[in-house]
Amino acid sequence: MYPPAQHVFVCITQRPPTAGASCGAAGSRLLMDKLQALLLEHDLSGRVRVNGSTCLGPCESGINLVVYPDAVFYQRVTEQDLREIVEQHLVAGRPVERLRVASLV
Ligand code: FES
Fold first, then answer.
1. Separation CA 24–CA 36 (nearest Å)
2. 78 pLDDT exceeds 90?
């Protein structure tokens, strides 16, 4: 399906440790690979697209990812959180509130 119904952007910015925190240094490329595998497992790869992104802003709170068009921003995401994000948010349409960053607007 194109365009996809949902798009997940995973920050894959990588900085050297001396330059501060980064999602890439925290393992976001591996996390993105595992997310893509879960999408295949749930037969979502046609409806949901995953892409790496440049810095999303709150580097100290990584690994960060954002789901569009929902505009749901998740922080401190680990591999253990991915199945919940896929099954609760991407399949059932209910964002995972415990990982979600509250909107400031
Ligand atoms: S490095 Fe990921 S949000 Fe900045």
1. 17
2. yes
